[in-house]
Specification:
With about 350 residues, the protein is mainly β. The protein is built from three helices and 27 strands. This is SMP-30/Gluconolactonase/LRE-like region domain-containing protein.
């Protein structure tokens, strides 16, 4: 995430994907022409995930102060077309056994997106999505691949966050449930100042159907943002936005290994070779950055980077460094898509496409 996007988050054709009304398919062209650098149209596509074994990409939509639409985007990597997936149109298949305390399905007017992740345990596929609208929660959707057609989503339930927790990113756990980053506590009126000063503002929380919420030892830091679980499920990788670090934290002992990233580290993704892609922003004027993200500006074109990190040694290399962006900036996530990296943003009108070096 970028600094204020969590605070801002507070503030038709028939389609087989929903069994209801979905957004019309858009071609992704920029200014009426194809663009090798961008997919134009998806607004504030803050986080991206690929549906395994398909060409389909799901993106979350980050709200800004003028935004009143709650939705996801579905993108086709084969031709860069996309459509809106409005929450109101998504079918409901509620699991009251697993999520008995969920108040009910959110409306589009009360859905403010953020981090997303896929849970592929037990042969089923679920989308986990942070929501800041109306309630602070993790919303859960079942995902059906529908071979030969678009995938379909159905809302299955939610888990409401502990009082005061402002969530950011989510990761599925193999034993059931999920982990989230608590970016800051809403009862701390100085959280913004603490964040810029690199002081502790939040931590990682785990949720399980049996035990509910619990904090994870060793994860208190300044603006915990992106989160990923190691392949053996023994450690968390956590991007510390306020401190500009990437941490590897043992789930068993809380022991921490850390590296400086040279940026405000945001979302984390795995590449095809099992390395971490770390995206984030860097800038000289925090107040300008903060002001843009608190405004209704359609684009906040601030510099961003993407690192590739070895999960064992934490050795890193820079894959992308955009020091003077114009049409696109404030990169938040980097997803490997074929021979490109797709870059999402907390404030922009497109997704960037950058060839692999």
């Amino acid at each position: 995430m970028a600094m204020r996007k969590t605070a801002l988050a507070l503030l038709a054709l028939q389609s087989p994907i929903l069994g209801a009304v979905a957004g019309e398919v858009q071609d992704g062209r920029c200014g009426g022409t194809a663009d090798e650098k961008y997919i134009c149209g998806p607004a504030n596509a803050e986080d991206l995930v690929v549906i395994p074994g398909t060409n389909w990409i799901l993106a979350s939509r980050m709200a800004n102060s003028a935004d009143r639409e709650g939705m996801f985007y579905l993108l086709d990597a084969s031709d860069h077309s996309w459509r809106k997936l409005d929450i109101d149109a998504i079918a409901e298949a509620r699991d009251k056994t697993l999520y008995p305390d969920c108040p009910g399905k959110p409306t589009s007017a009360l859905q403010r997106g953020h981090g997303i992740a896929l849970d592929a345990r037990n042969g089923a596929l679920k989308l986990l999505a942070i929501n800041h609208g109306g309630r602070e929660s993790v919303e859960i959707f079942t995902v059906t691949k529908n071979e030969g057609a678009e995938p379909s989503l159905a809302w299955a339930g939610c888990v409401v966050a502990p009082q005061g927790a402002m969530l950011n990113s989510v990761a599925a756990l193999p034993e059931g449930g999920f982990a989230v980053t608590k970016f800051f506590d809403t009862t701390n009126k100085n959280w913004g100042e603490d964040l810029f000063a690199g002081k502790e503002t939040g931590e990682v929380l785990e949720w399980s159907p049996k035990d509910g919420w619990s904090p994870v030892p060793g994860t208190k830091m300044s603006g915990p943002n992106g989160i990923a679980l190691s392949p053996d499920a023994g450690a968390y990788f956590i991007a510390e936005w306020g401190g500009g670090k990437l941490h590897k934290v043992s789930r068993k002992t809380g022991e921490r290994q850390s590296i400086d990233t040279g940026m405000h580290a945001d979302n984390l993704q795995w590449d095809a070779e099992g390395r971490l892609l770390v995206a984030g922003q860097f800038f000289d004027d925090p107040m300008a950055y903060r002001s843009c993200h608190m405004s209704e500006a359609p684009v906040c074109a601030f510099p961003f980077k993407v690192l590739r990190v070895d999960p064992t040694t934490l050795a890193s290399e820079t894959l992308v460094s955009e020091g003077e962006p114009k049409e696109f900036g404030s990169g938040t996530t980097a997803l490997e898509v074929g021979d490109e990296y797709w870059i999402g943003t907390s404030r922009g009108d497109r997704i960037a496409r950058i060839p692999k070096p």
